[in-house]
Design brief:
With about 70 residues, the chain is of the alpha+beta class. The chain has one domain: Alpha-Beta Plaits (2-Layer Sandwich). About 20% of the residues lie in helices and about 25% in strands. Strands 1-4-5 form a three-stranded antiparallel sheet, with helices on one face. Strand 2 and strand 3 form a beta hairpin. It is globular and about 30 Å long. The termini are far apart. The model has no long low-confidence stretch (mean pLDDT about 95). Bound molecules: iron/sulfur cluster (SF4).
């Protein structure tokens, strides 16, 4: 179970869907082809969420830890 909090910056997202490929329980594209987070996001590990964020070509996925510190982008 992951502890990281994830936010997608919709204005940045270009629908590349690499986050969906890496973490399908965490991300999905909506009808505007922008990534949204899913209720099942807690089933993905922190490492997978981090990998998904790193895979985003436009760094639209922001990850913070339990204390609110930004983990990625660093
Ligand atoms: S990888 Fe980035 S640009 Fe692609 S869908 Fe996910 S958030 Fe959007």
């Amino acid at each position: 179970m992951g502890q990281y909090k994830v936010q997608v910056i919709r204005d940045l997202c270009i629908g590349a869907a690499s986050c969906v490929a890496i973490a399908p329980k965490a991300f999905q594209l909506d009808n505007e082809a922008k990534a949204i987070t899913l209720p099942t996001i807690g089933e993905e590990s922190d490492q997978v969420l981090l990998d998904a964020a790193k895979s985003c070509p436009v760094a639209a996925i922001i990850i913070t830890d339990q204390s609110g510190n930004q983990v990625y982008p660093a």
